[in-house]
Design goal:
mainly alpha
Length: 311
């Protein structure tokens, strides 16, 4: 999840930074493009989850009510309006990511034009905010929150926004540094090693700062797309999983929980195969057609330049 947010910030910067710097990309068109990317499949899996709850295949949680359903439809369920996850639980991160999308055009132009010293200051500030969550701790010590409910007063929203911003800052650094195969390989290897060691030595799970460090090193390394990076991430299997990863993320837990009605416990390989099958179907039958339809409709509504006929 942490890798996803850093990578999202990096790729979005890679795609849109120059457009916003040159003021050739409108805010409205950008938001529509991002909605087309995430919203159709989010909405489909939300209603599918609710239908499975109604059929009794999935357990309805106390947080699954009409109010939180509306929040999920509006994609604002992790913005601090409720304390805990609800309905299709993985979609909390899509809500947080969409908040980052809305903020992205407001700061990316400044980052791309910033001096190296200013970028270093931004990176230092982000590192402090990720390692030492001042906002969360202030609310906790003031007795406003208990430090357990992850979405109270938008705590997770801010925490993951800093991680997203770290990805954007990484892009701004990377574009100033000449690509080198050896440095890229070392960075990728160090990131993967740090990720594995952190996972093996941390009993409570990967922390936000550990995941961010590993993500920054790996993403900085794979930008060269050679050597270790190409071997690990550029093979056909990883490419395919990356293509259907959004659908896989949104459906995997529901598929597993539904399958328990028929086989309990379901073997890991069967869970993976079943989830990949459902994700592939969702990607090609729902995600891609809906995205293309929204983007096509948006392009069709743009005013066309008048055709001047010669006399």
């Amino acid at each position: 999840m942490i890798v996803f947010f850093v990578l999202s910030g990096y790729i979005l910067s890679l795609t849109y930074a120059d457009r916003f710097r040159d003021e050739s990309a409108g805010y409205r068109n950008f938001v529509i493009a991002r909605l087309a990317r995430v919203y159709p499949l989010h909405l489909f899996t939300l209603f599918a989850f609710a239908f499975l709850v109604w059929l009794g295949y999935l357990e309805k949680m106390p947080t699954d009510n009409a109010y939180t359903f509306i929040l999920n439809v509006l994609l604002i369920q992790s913005w601090g309006f409720t304390d805990l996850v609800s309905w299709n639980q993985p979609s909390w991160s899509i809500s947080t990511e969409f908040f980052a999308y809305l903020m992205f055009p407001l700061f990316i132009a400044r980052l791309t034009k910033a001096t190296f010293v200013f970028l270093a200051a931004v990176a230092t500030a982000l590192a402090c905010l990720i390692y030492f969550p001042i906002y969360d701790l202030s609310l906790k010590y003031a007795g406003i929150t208990d430090g357990v409910r992850q979405f109270q007063f938008g705590s997770s929203l801010l925490s993951f926004f800093w991680v997203f911003a770290a990805g954007c800052t990484l892009y701004s650094f990377a574009r100033r540094i000449r690509s080198n195969a050896l440095i890229s390989d070392l960075s990728t290897f160090a990131g993967l090693l740090f990720l594995v060691v952190s996972c093996l030595t941390t009993q409570s799970g990967l922390s936000l700062w550990q995941g961010t460090i590993a993500s920054v090193l790996i993403i900085f390394g794979i930008r060269n797309d050679t050597g270790i990076s190409a071997m690990v991430f550029a093979n056909p299997i990883i490419h395919f999983i990356g293509r259907v990863s959004f659908a896989l993320y949104l459906c995997a837990s529901s598929v597993e929980w539904t399958a328990r009605h028929y086989v309990n416990p379901l073997p890991l390989w069967a869970n993976l195969a079943l989830s990949l099958g459902v994700a592939t179907a969702l990607h090609y039958l729902v995600e891609v057609p809906a995205r293309n339809a929204i983007r096509g409709a948006t392009v069709a509504r743009k005013p066309q330049a008048p055709v001047i006929q010669s006399a």
